[in-house]
Write a structure and sequence with these properties.
Radius of gyration: 14 Å
Structural class: alpha+beta
Strand order of the largest sheet: 2-3-1-4
Order of helices and strands: EHEEHHE
Number of strands: 4
Length: 98
Amino acid sequence: MFTRIVKMVFEPQHIPIFLNNFEEVKEKIRGFEGCEFLELYRDKNQENIFFTYSRWNAEVDLENYRNSDLFKEVWSVTKPMFKEKAEAWSVDTLVKLP
């Protein structure tokens, strides 16, 4: 299992559209095969910066999602609203405390 972190910086006027769209698709993303966890975070100091954290069973699961119609639909709505290019990291958990 690994975590995918995506940083997105939006044009401020697009934030309500992004949040509404995320509300509509979050269950579909979380329900995608191999996705075990999904959260959306907002920067405390810069309200136009958001992060998604998702946990995936295997890299093939994330790749299947990224090649899916669902991802293409979500990204086609989200990407034009960016102020900056999105950044993404795939990370392994080294230490986890209960």
